[in-house]
Amino acid sequence: MRYGVVGTGWIAKSFIDGARQLCGADFSAVYSRTQENGGRFAAENGINKVYTDFSEFAKADFEAAYVASPNRLHYEQSKILIENGKHVICEKPVTVDPEELRELQALAKAKGVIYAEAIMYMFNPARDLLRDAVTKIGRITSVHFDFSQLSSKYPAYLEGKLPNIFNPALATGCLMDLGIYCVYPALDLFGAPEKITACSHFMESGADGSGNSAFLYPDKLVNLTYSKLGQDRLGSQIFGDKGTITIESISKLTNMKLIENNGKVTEIIGDVPKETLMGYEAKGFEEFISNPGSPYYEVMSLRALQVSKAMKEIRNISGIEFPKQVK
What pTM did the predictor assign? Predict the structure, then answer.
């Protein structure tokens, strides 16, 4: 598969490395706002062509695009690419609002192309292992999913700078960056809740630096916590009356264990390199392109919309707002 890449950050490099590792993917073009950044990234990653005009990039000779630009740009850039007949895998959150997602899903269907969210959870083979383990721990009444990771950009913020991840004008912040990794397994494992409650802690920039949400079901409570201002050391847990599942990384689904009430510990999965996890995204995406009628593609599309709706509800409840235009 021949790809074009939107963005020049570390996540784009991880996707390239993973796609080459698992799929032998060919990356022929990169879009960047500046020739300098684009040229540097292209040289470092063996890419021949750099574009600074997005319209020209969208018409270039590649079949699929990986979009890793700031959240605010996902909808507009994905739409242009889809209109030009490109398959698109876009970093999470795939769009800011569910209405945008519905529109692009319909447009992709009309154009006969694949449009998917680059979310590790749904492409990860460990998802099936987790879903199976959940059936072995009896009646589940309590769940805690946590993704709290001290941001590498936080020192710059403290120095008075405004990194993209802490700039609400780009539709970023803790929920959109990390909280989504908790929302996905909650909805995928347990379905839509009867009620959602949420609150957030805001930084001076207006971005949410940390927050929590509670998903209330008739038979269980699923608590989600997320922060970019501190580092989690305990991970996530699913509590059943016959055992407990521990998950060191909810984003990567790594180092998962099933602990029975008698103390017996069974490893579900150990560690997996980040590039391999990104490679699973590329592999699954290419399988959708080869088999556009895939039932799992429909599952993923529906789940993405379900998550987008829940994310918007959490933002509304907790007061997370994004300016309409980037300043």
Answer: 0.96
Residue 198 in contact with residue 314, Cβ under 8 Å? yes
User: Could you identify the residue written with the tokens 């996890």?
Assistant: 277
Q: Are strands 208-216 and 87-91 parallel, antiparallel or unpaired?
A: unpaired
CA atoms within 13 A on the CB side of 118: 28
- Find all residues with CB under 8 Å of 49, minimum gap 6, and list them: 28, 29, 30, 42, 60
- In whole angstroms, give the CA distance from residue 283 to residue 131: 21
Rounded distance between C-alpha atoms, residue 148 and residue 128, angstroms: 24
Structure tokens at 181: 């990794």
Inter-residue contact 68 to 12 (CB < 8 Å): yes
Q: Dihedrals φ, ψ of 307, to 5°? A: -65, -40
The single residue listed with the structure tokens 């997320």 is 226
| pLDDT, tens digit (0-9, with 9 covering 90-100), for 267-303 | 999 999 999 999 999 999 999 999 989 999 999 999 9
Dihedral angle sign, alpha carbons of residues 16, 21, 22, 25: positive
Cis omega (within 30 of 0) on the bond before 93? yes
In whole angstroms, how large is the CA radius of gyration of the chain?
20
**Nearest alpha-carbon partner for 123 in 263, 236, 15:** 15
Please give the share of the chain, as a percent, with pLDDT higher than 70: 99
The predicted-structure confidence for 246-272, as pLDDT tens digits, reads as follows 999 999 999 999 999 999 999 999 999
Q: Give the residue ranges of DSSP H helices in the chain.
A: 10-23, 35-45, 54-58, 74-83, 98-111, 120-123, 126-134, 154-158, 174, 180-190, 274-290, 295-318
Q: Dig out the tokens for 314 from the structure.
A: 């959490």
Bridge partners (DSSP) of residue 6 are 31, 67
Residue with tokens 């993923």: 300
